[in-house]
Specification:
Shape: globular
Number of domains: 1
Oligomer: single chain
Structural class: alpha+beta
Helix content: 10-25%
Largest sheet: 3 strands, antiparallel
Order of helices and strands: EHEEHEEHH
Number of helices: 4
Length: 180
């Protein structure tokens, strides 16, 4: 970069302004959206760069309380439980992707939550919960289970939690839990 004297005015096209940042929102994923590759399929663009990392939601637990017609299996939901926690992936997504995320999460409604990530508290985080919950859990299929685990592992969820999630899905598939 050269320094100009005051006798030589700077041309407008020579000024480099910082790009205007677009509006963003925080999103907590706990199911198949934990997988950035699967999320890309719905949002239409790469989502790896939007991943902040593994995060914890206190006061909720996971369950397969919805049967997805599109995926032909049980899919994840969160339900309030003061004794439990849910691990998931915290994203910082452009607001322009919000409508596409809503389309993907058909059958779910927005919920605003607080999550913890590496000692920081993130408030006003968006997530989704099932609108019409089943009374019993419905088993996921192998494809859905694989996507959920791939996302959990790829985004660095704790190994112990990944194993817990794996065993829960396996028990539902084998009918050793109360699956619908």
């Amino acid at each position: 970069m050269s320094v100009r004297s005051s006798s030589h005015p700077v041309e407008l096209d020579e000024i480099r302004l910082e790009p205007e940042t677009e509006p963003m929102f925080y999103y907590f994923a706990y199911g198949s959206c934990m997988c950035p590759v699967d999320l890309k399929r719905s949002l239409g663009e790469h989502t790896h760069s939007y991943v902040i990392g593994a995060a914890t939601l206190k006061g909720y637990r996971l369950g397969f309380f919805r049967r997805s017609q599109r995926r032909n299996c049980g899919v994840l939901d969160i339900v309030k439980d003061p004794t439990a926690t849910v691990e998931g992936v915290l994203y910082r997504l452009p607001l322009r992707l919000s409508d596409r995320l809503d389309e993907r999460e058909e059958g779910y409604c927005h919920e605003t939550i607080t999550v913890h990530h590496q000692g920081q508290v993130f408030r006003n985080v968006q997530t989704y919960t099932v609108i019409e919950k089943l009374t019993q859990e419905h088993a996921p299929n192998d494809w859905y289970s694989g996507v959920v685990l791939r996302g959990a592992i790829t985004c660095g969820l704790p190994e112990q939690y990944c194993w817990k999630l794996f065993h829960h899905m396996q028990q539902l598939q084998q009918g050793t839990l109360n699956a619908a």
